[in-house]
Specification:
Length: 502
Amino acid sequence: MSTVVRTLPPGILPVVAIDRTSSKPLYKQLYEGYRDAIVERRLSGGQRLPSTRSLAAELQISRIPVLGAFEQLLAEGYFETRPGAGTFVARSLPDVRPRPASQPATGSPAEPAAPGRRTVARRPTQVLLHDEPGPWTAGLEPFQCPSPPVDRFPTKVWSALVARHSRRFDPGQLHYHRDPMGLPSLRETVARYLRTSRAVRCEAGQIMVVSGSQQALDLASRVLLDDGSPVWIEEPGYWGARHALQMAGARLVPVPVDGEGLDVDAGIARCPGPRAVYVTPSHQLPLGMTMSASRRLKLLDWARRRGVWIIEDDYDGEYRYGNLPVASLQGLDRDSRVIYIGTFTKSLFPAIRLGYIVLPPDLVAPFVAVRRAMDMFSPPFVQSVLADFIQEGHFERHLRRTRLLCRQRRRALVFALGERLGSQLRVIGDQAGMFLTTVLEKGRRDREVATRAALQGVRTFPLSECYMGRKRRQGLVLGYGGFTEKEIAEGVDRLRAVLNAD
């Protein structure tokens, strides 16, 4: 394979390698090259970068891919601009150098005696009964959340694949003794997809196919946690993760989020030695922000030194509208601390009940042992259909179509809220995913609003339900991905009637 290497003017590092024969787009080669140089500290905070024009000229390529790469690095917080001065490596990035995998971790008197110690649970923990769900969780009316655009799912293509596999069905698939990790063809396909689209470092042997992200969380909790193990969770955060962790007997430590995502320093102050951290870095649930590069690197370095597991829930990372999809936290991990969770229930349809976990190699055996005890394996027939659906390009085409559709539906919802409700609902977190979050005007209680709205055929999830502490923001989480623009407008009208009835 021919690789063209162009050296930049003196003082500009690192050397940028462009492989013109690669199928990987030029902008992605530049993006990954600069990101890796920053993560590996070959570029340091505050270091000046070449202009996009001079870099394009030096590499003898169009300026368009250079602009795309720089915009993505700016969006993720690796670069920063200074008016009149140019573009620089972000100074906010922590000054830590990741150690090689073969280099042992060294501790300090303030750290545990065995930093980096890899511990797993000794036994499954007792099951915790949950509270009954509220009326806002029932029904399929706007703005039930989460709500993928199932109305645009290619049912004819899926049906044809189902028919094909039914005709050549192997009776051997009816037996036990299936691989607890999942169908090999699907795992290979998912590994290729994750490496390409989400920058996940993985091979098929690290991927376990599960029944959605909720089972993935349950499995991770059973393997990693003992009864009473402290776990950081985002505050506010995903209620489903909270329930799964509580069922494992974990002691939950709510850690606040701000505009950059999980506040690592606040977490350390509240609980310096958790067993694990649960985080949604690509699209925080429910507030919608993306974890900054500075916070990501700080979290990874701290987890490495303290021997903490990170559970990354990338539940809808494919759906991003302001910028390209953000690379995974797992892809930056050089110490195998991150357990990466993904799902097809958001990108395809909820009833498929298929998701996956990307496991560090030394956790594969414990996860397999627990999976065998839980439900043995996921149904192979649907896995085989899904593998073909992805391999033949239908999945990627579906994502392109629904990403555009969700952007249009988001725009319609934001417009309708602004036009009909004004200051009664303030929109936050509207640049990704299939839901957005709103904040109610002072004095309103979101549970009361959501209960009354449910009686009028409007399903809005109360924001306060996402908090553990007493201080709870009052707002509504509105799903829009599964509803037409007409349904969205009618739903906003009904919600306005509920709010104006006070």
